[in-house]
Amino acid sequence: MNYNAKLDEALDALHDEGRYRVFMNIARTRGQFPRANWTRPDGTVQEIAVWCGNDYLGMGQNPVVLDAMHQAINAYGAGSGGTRNISGTTLLHNALEAEIADLHQKEAALVFTSAYIANESTLSVLPKLFPGMIIFSDALNHASMIEGVRHGRCEKQIWRHNDLDHLRELLQAADPDAPKLIAFESVYSMDGDFGPLREVCDLAEEFGALTYLDEVHAVGMYGAHGGGVSEQEGLTDRIDIINGTLGKAFGVMGGYIAASARMVDAVRSYAPGFIFTTSLPPAILAGAQASIAYLKEHQELRDQQQDAAKVLKLRLKAMGLPVIDSPSHIVPVHVGNPVKCKNLSDSLLDDFGIYVQPINYPTVPRGTERLRFTPSPVHDFGMIDALVGALDSLWKQCELSRAAIAS
Q: 369 in helix, strand or coil?
């Protein structure tokens, strides 16, 4: 076997399809968000505006968060010292989990190194805790949820995205005595649409199923305290397990679940992805707790972000650009061709200093390639003007369709 040739073959296939991914070497400067410095391949440095980050509210630059992280380093040092079971549980872990539990009005929470690991670990262990479990998973669930369900090695039923009639059909056809779990998301990040939380909860209660909600793109962003769409719709008490992240709106790193104390205790006791992983370090824990506490009290950041998203959508629509019409804070613009999507991204960066990553297969289905913009409270009107003008110019050059796209 020529292993190098096989590797070249796999990489060449990505290049040929126009979806080979290049890492951007950027440096975010404290106090300058969303501007950053990009180091080009030739070593020169260019100032750019970041339009595709997941630090939705700029909390990764917030002085309250940074001060908490500095204080934690000075007090406790760099690392945690071990797994949660072996010397790696600290007062800061407990304090952060209490803050998260309060955010979601749950009895307990459990912190993981990422929301991906939280999803994969929890969904894979639930079938072991409930033998014979059937998991009903929305067709557009995140890869981490798909992996978790797969590793759970249980019966799974995929329901068409947000199709409640299909979900009902699958639930009706299932063994009425089997334990069941419905896994879905509140905000689907590629199209920016919402999951039907209330209706799923109704079906779960009717058929005796647990509910598992991924709020990764909603925590910090929705609800009176940033508890997500479930808080905004008054449904927190009807969701059995909530998954969230500390690395997007909260601006730090890590993931978690929030649930009943009994559920959390079982997951922490049986999930290998939790048991055998070194725990998060003190600075991350302190920064995340400070961010959550801050956003519980600062609705104005959520309001400003929503306003920026609305303005950008209206401006793009006014230019006839094919915005995927979503109700959330995410602004996807349909391209439909991987090569042109990459070319648009490259031209925006090289010619206009605007950084937005192309979203190609396998993140989205082939033929639905897009640019995905995430405006923040500090993307001002001048930056929006520059973005809209650049897109309008490049759309003409690339001879792309301006037909409207439905969500």
A: coil
* 262, containing H or E segment: helix 261-270
Query: For residues 363 and 29, is the Cβ–Cβ distance under 8 A?
Result: no
Q: pLDDT tens digits, residue range 194-242? A: 999 999 999 999 999 999 999 999 999 999 999 999 999 999 999 999 9
User: Half-sphere exposure of 190 toward its Cβ, with a 13 Å CA cutoff?
Assistant: 17
pTM of the entire predicted model? 0.94
357, two tokens: 């990553």
Residue 226 to residue 216: CA distance in whole angstroms = 11
The residue count of the chain comes to 407
From the list 248, 313, 340, 342, the catalytic residue is 248
Cα–Cα distance between 165 and 167 in angstroms, integer? 5
How far is it, in rounded angstroms, from Cα 154 to Cα 124?
A: 9
Q: State the CB neighbour count (10 A cutoff) for residue 386.
A: 15
Tokens of 406: 């439905």
Query: Sign of the C-alpha dihedral, residues 22, 23, 28, 33?
Result: positive
φ/ψ of 86, rounded to 5, equals -125, 85
The answer to whether 369 and 336 have CB atoms below 8 angstroms apart is yes
Mean pLDDT of 151-163: 97
Q: What is the pLDDT of residues 232-268, one digit of tens each?
A: 999 999 999 999 999 999 999 999 999 999 999 999 9
* H or E element that contains 184: strand 180-185
156 catalytic, yes or no?
no
The owner of tokens 């920016």 is 192
| Residue 78 identity | A
Tell me 59's DSSP state: G
Amino acid at 92: L
Is the torsion defined by CA of 261, 266, 268, 269 positive or negative?
Answer: positive
